[in-house]
Amino acid sequence: MTLQDKERFKMMYIFAKDVSSIADGITLERLTSEKAYQYSLLYPLGQIGELAINMGSDIPVLYPNIEWADWRGFRNRVFHNYGMINFTIVLEMITEAIPLLLIELQKIYNNDNAT
Predict the structure, then answer these.
(1) Terminal Cα-to-Cα distance of the chain (whole angstroms)
(2) For 33-84, what is each residue's pLDDT tens digit?
(3) Closest listed residue to residue 57, CA positions, set 110, 113, 4
(4) What share of the chain in percent tops pLDDT 90?
């Protein structure tokens, strides 16, 4: 793993923790009605996808438990869907994908620090 990929993992972890913190107690109603709340969550979610896109080509093979294609695709929807965001999918990413991503990133961090 390159130094750049290590930094990308670190940033993914920071963005995922931010989403988890901001979204504590999230509801679909709040997510669909509050623009500032939407923006505060969509930016870090999109950045996770951007970091996933820029990982080295060996990373998805080394870390297959991360849904690389889902994160890349989600990033494209956030940044290129021009306001046509499906907030039900955003809610699923926050409540289902973020906790799983945090688990995997914590494993990577722990393994990296053990060596």
Answers:
(1) 13
(2) 999 999 999 999 999 999 998 998 899 999 999 999 889 988 888 888 766 7
(3) 4
(4) 66
Tokens 């999230």 sit at which residue? 26
**Segments making up each domain of the chain, as ranges:** 3-109
Task: Classify residue 68 by its DSSP letter.
Answer: H
Amino acid at 48: I
- Tell me what pLDDT residue 105 has: 93
pTM of the entire predicted model: 0.87
Q: Could you give the C-alpha distances from 103 to 33, 39, 46, 113, in angstroms and in order?
A: 30, 24, 19, 15
- Residue 104 pLDDT > 80: yes
Between CA 48 and CA 14 the distance in angstroms is: 9
Asked if 89 and 60 touch (Cβ cutoff 8 Å), the reply is no
